[in-house]
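From the thread on structure requests for the teaching lab: each student submitted one protein with a one-line request. Submission from student K.M.:

"Model Purine nucleoside phosphorylase from Adineta ricciae, tokens only."
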Amino acid sequence: MSNNTQSKKESALIAENGPWAAVGEHPNAITNRFYTYERVQEIVAFIQNIVPAKPEVAIICGSGLGGLAELVVDKVVIPYADIPNFPRSTVAGHRSNLVFGILNGISVVCMQGRFHPYEGYTTAACAFPVRVMQMLGAHTLIVTCAAGGVNKSYRVGDIMLIKDHINFPSMAGNNPLIGHNDERFGKKIRPRFPPVGHAYDRQYASQMKQVAAKHNIELREGVYCALGGPCYETIAEINLLRVLGIDAVGMSIVHEVTLGAHCGLRMLGLALITNKCLFEYDSTIEAVHEDVIRISELKANELQQLILDFVGGIKTNKT
Ligand SMILES: O=P(O)(O)O[C@H]1O[C@H](CO)[C@@H](O)[C@H]1O
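Reply posted by the TA:
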């Protein structure tokens, strides 16, 4: 079709349907029209055919943190590539498997590899597996990630309990819930305007602090902020984040926690500080993803210990 014919057709459409016919749909709205409740149910049915047991706890493994899934016993591994309409992880340090089994006595599903917006996925596509895991039976979501330390007192290797987050993409109009609100996601009616002020469960946070104290692991507690990536931050950006009271920065988690809040999951977040962010113009150290993975793998043991013990303490939910 020539450009002229195309624009004549568009003009006719607008004349007939009004100016909104010319407005492109938000990419998240398109994603959400694809990942309908019924399509999520289809994915869930496919998985249940392979793994009939219901997971209670869902865990998303961050960069270099997929080793946690290796601790699962009676394991069933489903590669993302085998699941219809499931995205693939394209980043180093992220495998592409759903791992089912038992972790310290509780039935879990681990995402060994997550999806990030900078890979080209919409935030809605990055987060939709949270709905899959909730529909499979999970009542709890643990998100883990690698992050840069913005708080000047943080050291490489510190583990930060996420108290709250700042969702910059959402503040700029990119929220994974944009589009039709299907009230069927979750056990209750899910509202158009879900509250996220208490997305990170306070009781879980205090249980995690007790676990850390028991293991003599120093646990930081702070605010995580997600930027779009894939660039690491400029020095001016880091100084801005610090003024805003942000403790750690990354490129993930917030869209997952948003959908988790929408479908009623209890959530806990842990960030491993893999690098100190740049504050000074005369500093020569730059963040490098290879270092992020190296530090994650090096410090994974402590994080795994915390999660193992924590999940062991979660009361089995038989409802
Ligand atoms: O948040 P995770 O997936 O742990 O990964 C973090 O590490 C990568 C950058 O090195 C980014 O993807 C950032 O988000």
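TA comment: The beta strands are 57-60, 73-79, 97-103, 106-112, 140-149, 159-167, 219-226, 248-250, 266-276. The longest strand covers residues 266-276.
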